[in-house]
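Readers outside the structure-tokenisation community will struggle with the description of the input data as it stands. What matters is that the chain and its backbone geometry are given together, residue for residue. For illustration, here is how one protein appears when written out as sequence plus structure tokens:

…
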Amino acid sequence: MQKIMVCMKRVVDYNVRVRVKPDGSGVMLDGVKMSLNPFDEIALEEALRIKERVGNIEVLAVSIGVADTQQQLRTALAMGADRAVLVQSDAAVEPLVAAQTFLALVKKENPDLVLLGKQAIDDDANQTGQMLAALWDRPQATYASKLELTETAVMADYDLALVVLQALDTMGVSLSIDDFGTGYSSMSYLKTLPVKELKIDRSFVMGMANDPDSAVIVRSTIDLAHNLDMTVVAEGVEDRIARNALAAMGCDLVQGYGICRPVPAGELELWMVGGGDTEDRVRVRPGAFPGRVVKQVRPDDVPSRATT
């Protein structure tokens, strides 16, 4: 059975008006309502959603604090957590101490995934998660800047997808349609969904050289996306011929083995220093989208190696 560990913190309830101690050393907690940190509740809700989708997952809620923290862990159990662990401490717990304590729990419980709220509303430190990742030597995701989704996923429940994606767009998450052209295609959703990027499926891109129909589809998709003010990415670019053709069509970005094959991190750094692209994507329509230019490529002059 897989396991998700959710780290939770007991904080002053967000509806309570906080009073500072006379000596300025902290806030007065006597008689004050305490609750779970709201952002940790969000992390727990996400763990429960994963469990609902995947199944056969144990959700473990853990916390550090005084004995009364059991009340907040009972709330986590009521929300749906399978088990809860409290590491009792009467002293104030700094982020590094919290990370070290959670690391000890990680080694004992061996979870497959650890979730934390993005910050605590009492100190707003936003440090424990980063420290735990460093101590545990595991990758950490702190922010989603872009969400890639397929046409099939969107059309499975279009009304729900529209509400969720509009909310994500409001939060600043850029939305991209992946593998465009292979799923349930409907032009109406391109008009209504807050999509910023369209990724043309590799099956059309790789077939351009030998299939005129594929080339027509690619060109038409690029024109359509640009008319809707979207960035276009061509997947599956294997060679210079494809890069030249896409540049001539006005495609914005390309990705694929024609740019760089997967390499270890050390080799990638050497490749970049030697003149390689800084990403496995190349900008091919100069000046189309202002900002940091990864690389500009002219249709009539596509170098075999990238220049910066």
